[in-house]
Amino acid sequence: MGVLVDPGQGRAVSAELTAISGLPALFRPTPAAAERTLEFFTANIRNPNTRRAYARAVAAFAVWCGEQGLPELAALRPVHIAAYVEQLQGRVSAPSVKQHLAALRVLFDWLVVGQVIPFNPASSVRGPRHSVRKGKTPVLTAEEARAMLDAIDITTPVGLRDRALIGLMVFTFARVGAAIGMRVEDVYVQGRRTWVRLHEKGGKVHEMPCHHNLDEYVHAYLNIDGLGDDKKAFLFRSAKGRGGQLSALPMSQADVYRMIGRRAASALVATKVGCHSFRATGITEYLRNGGKLEVAQQMANHESARTTGLYDRRQDEVSLDEVERIRI
Fold first, then answer.
1. Domain enclosing residue 23, as ranges
2. Higher pLDDT among residues 47 and 57, named by residue
3. For position 272, what pLDDT does the model report?
4. Which helix (H) or strand (E) segment is 194 a member of?
5. Residue 137 lies in a domain
């Protein structure tokens, strides 16, 4: 006799089985191990960026284990994790090695709690030492940022969108993920001032008043016919083909990255700029004009002032001035 299954439940079970079959063989020696591993990536990790990064790290480790003849999850020991970390150091940067190790540690902890393995083989393995005082994110000068904004053709909806989005990231220090996740209702007026509401990492809601330039950019964008009517609609929407019109779908991070590349090229900005560059540019210019680090930390929604300090590139200009003293 067949088992009666609700159609919706059947689809869910089918999707789960497909996901389990896609796991590396190392992490599905038993149905319980496979299910627990799948739960780690679905129920335990909520941030999609972290999920993707950890999935890549775990998959790479599983491939390495296969190459080393280590097919059994329960057979893994600290010496195996240490050997993996050692060979990783010859191929990738120290921060990437630390991320791989972190992924293995938390996954193995999850498997230990689920009684899949008796102990965590990665818990005692130390990663490489790594200390930075300045971030690697390319930073624009104020002149370059202004040139990019001024070069945008604002006679089209796409142009108004791009100016508002770049302005948002510069003047509120917003992460690109928080920017493209905004809804129309996340722009509001309070105390005769326009504010924006950013949904940051970890479910944190961060609210910022708009700089007067950003106020102008956002309201010019929202004045596009019909764009501001649906308060639940996405604020920054993808374009329909090459016509300059907007769809109802949100921009992706890849969309923003390509847009930034086009805008930089049209403004003749040679700096290799990315999505995060505007956050770093805004913080640097704020501090250069007398802003306080602790206030910048609050504006950027950083947990630590040390993190905010990584975006401070004022010393780059000082270094350049000193180099120019070498008059030959």
1. 14-113
2. 57
3. 87
4. strand 193-199
5. no
